[in-house]
């Protein structure tokens, strides 16, 4: 048996399909086990999904049109940074269409046979979700072309001159691909998706709604200003907002009555090394190495990684994207440079030649 994951998505007991109606209301006093946390915090329908209004409206048209024609929806490609809801959106697509969801990931599809085994087990209308689809092996990707277009695959039996190609019909399905690096997708694969959506970072207002909704599901009382404080430090990412809420809940239960106030939220985030800009210990270590160790740069990623004791890939993929988006680090041809905002964030006076000095 291959090592790929096959998961059929089903709603928790007591919640009807689509998540609509009075039966789907959440009891604020019910405590949710941590092992079921992610499943219970995920929205179950497009109406419940917070943020991404453009993607939601476009996807609603795609799914509504498919339901009216009684056909499987076009294949869907979801791209964007981690934690914005791509997996949740795939679950919602299956739920809205009343079908099963099969889940796997690109790295798990190392051979064409792995993909053939999964495709041959699909039922009509099923949704196949492939996370990190840009990392799928080339032989499996080439098999996927025919499956997406013609709902057919060719299975090779035997080796050498005696090998025989056997065509195998597969049930019509909808492929939902998710990628954090859309630029790494090959042209032929990208062109076979009927609908492509780019997930954007959330603003503080939408993230506050995410925090309030999650607190209600977790049975945590929270003040509006405390929810806004957590949202403002969540890097525009719902996954981070939910994680910070759980840690603030722990602090409020240990050091108080469990109700999350603004003071409790701020004190908890100090304990967990998340500052007012959403930077954690590693982010500040990178800025400190860049400014204190190299005068603000320019300096290469490998040098920064050695200074903070991390792998270059960690600095480049985990820290740098947010630091660049927050306007604290600038990427140049000679290396990374600390902006005036980075100097000020560390309580220092930026030099005259620091990027963004005049803007600040």
TrEMBL record:
Compartments in which it is found: Cytoplasm
EC number(s) stated in the UniProt entry for this protein: 3.6.4.-
Keyword Ion transport: no
Residues binding Mg(2+), per UniProt: 87
Domain AAA+ ATPase intervals: 72-206
Key word Chloroplast present: no
Stretches for region Disordered: 1-29
Reaction equation(s) it catalyzes: ATP + H2O = ADP + phosphate + H(+)
Enzyme class: hydrolase
Chain intervals with Basic and acidic residues compositional bias: 1-11
Keywords tagged on the record: ATP-binding, Cytoplasm, DNA damage, DNA recombination, DNA repair, DNA-binding, Helicase, Hydrolase, Nucleotide-binding
InterPro entries the UniProt entry points to: AAA+_ATPase (IPR003593), AAA_lid_4 (IPR041445), DNA_helicase_Holl-junc_RuvB (IPR004605), P-loop_NTPase (IPR027417), RuvB-like_N (IPR008824), RuvB_wg_C (IPR008823), WH-like_DNA-bd_sf (IPR036388), WH_DNA-bd_sf (IPR036390)
CC terms in the record's Gene Ontology section: cytoplasm; Holliday junction resolvase complex
Binding site for ATP: 41-42, 83, 86-88, 149-151, 192, 202, 239
Annotated stretches, region: Large ATPase domain (RuvB-L): 22-202
A GO MF label: ATP hydrolysis activity
Summary of subunit composition and partner proteins: Homohexamer. Forms an RuvA(8)-RuvB(12)-Holliday junction (HJ) complex. HJ DNA is sandwiched between 2 RuvA tetramers; dsDNA enters through RuvA and exits via RuvB. An RuvB hexamer assembles on each DNA strand where it exits the tetramer. Each RuvB hexamer is contacted by two RuvA subunits (via domain III) on 2 adjacent RuvB subunits; this complex drives branch migration. In the full resolvosome a probable DNA-RuvA(4)-RuvB(12)-RuvC(2) complex forms which resolves the HJ.
HAMAP family in UniProt: DNA_HJ_migration_RuvB
Domain notes: Has 3 domains, the large (RuvB-L) and small ATPase (RuvB-S) domains and the C-terminal head (RuvB-H) domain. The head domain binds DNA, while the ATPase domains jointly bind ATP, ADP or are empty depending on the state of the subunit in the translocation cycle. During a single DNA translocation step the structure of each domain remains the same, but their relative positions change.
Family: Belongs to the RuvB family.
UniProt cross-references to PANTHER family, sorted A to Z: HOLLIDAY JUNCTION BRANCH MIGRATION COMPLEX SUBUNIT RUVB (PTHR42848:SF1), PTHR42848
Job of this protein: The RuvA-RuvB-RuvC complex processes Holliday junction (HJ) DNA during genetic recombination and DNA repair, while the RuvA-RuvB complex plays an important role in the rescue of blocked DNA replication forks via replication fork reversal (RFR). RuvA specifically binds to HJ cruciform DNA, conferring on it an open structure. The RuvB hexamer acts as an ATP-dependent pump, pulling dsDNA into and through the RuvAB complex. RuvB forms 2 homohexamers on either side of HJ DNA bound by 1 or 2 RuvA tetramers; 4 subunits per hexamer contact DNA at a time.
Name of the protein described by the UniProt record: Holliday junction branch migration complex subunit RuvB
Source species: Corynebacterium aquilae DSM 44791
């Amino acid at each position: 048996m291959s090592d790929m994951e096959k998961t059929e998505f089903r709603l928790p007991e007591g919640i009807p399909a689509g998540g609509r109606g009075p039966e789907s209301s959440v009891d604020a006093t019910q405590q949710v086990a941590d092992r079921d946390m992610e499943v219970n915090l995920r929205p179950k329908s497009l109406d419940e999904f917070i943020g991404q209004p453009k993607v939601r409206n476009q996807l609603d048209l795609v799914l509504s049109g498919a339901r009216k024609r009684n056909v499987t929806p076009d294949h869907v490609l979801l791209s964007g940074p981690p934690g914005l809801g791509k997996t949740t959106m795939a679950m919602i697509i299956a739920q809205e269409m009343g079908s099963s969801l099969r889940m796997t990931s690109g790295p798990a599809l190392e051979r064409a046979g792995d993909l053939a085994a999964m495709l041959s087990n699909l039922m009509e209308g099923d949704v196949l979700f492939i996370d990190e689809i840009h990392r799928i092996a080339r032989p499996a990707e080439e098999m996927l072309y025919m499956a997406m277009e013609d709902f057919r695959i060719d299975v090779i039996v035997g080796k050498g001159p005696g090998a025989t190609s056997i065509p195998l019909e597969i049930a019509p399905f909808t492929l939902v691909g998710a990628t954090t690096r859309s630029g790494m997708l090959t042209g032929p694969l990208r062109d076979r998706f009927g609908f492509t959506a780019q997930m954007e970072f959330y603003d503080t207002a939408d993230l506050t709604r995410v925090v309030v909704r999650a607190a209600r599901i977790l049975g945590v009382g929270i003040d509006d200003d405390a929810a806004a404080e957590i949202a403002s430090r969540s890097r525009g990412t719902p996954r981070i907002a939910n994680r910070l809420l759980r840690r603030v809940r722990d602090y409020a239960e240990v050091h108080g009555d469990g109700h999350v106030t603004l003071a409790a939220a701020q004190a908890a985030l100090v304990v967990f090394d998340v500052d007012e800009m959403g930077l954690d210990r590693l982010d500040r270590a990178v800025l400190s190495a860049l400014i204190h160790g190299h005068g603000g740069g320019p300096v290469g990623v490998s040098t920064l990684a050695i200074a903070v004791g991390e792998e270059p890939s960690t600095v480049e993929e985990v820290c740098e994207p947010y630091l660049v988006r927050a306007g604290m680090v600038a990427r140049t041809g000679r290396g990374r440079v600390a902006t005036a905002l980075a100097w000020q964030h560390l309580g220092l006076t930026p030099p005259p030649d620091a990027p963004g000095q005049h803007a600040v």
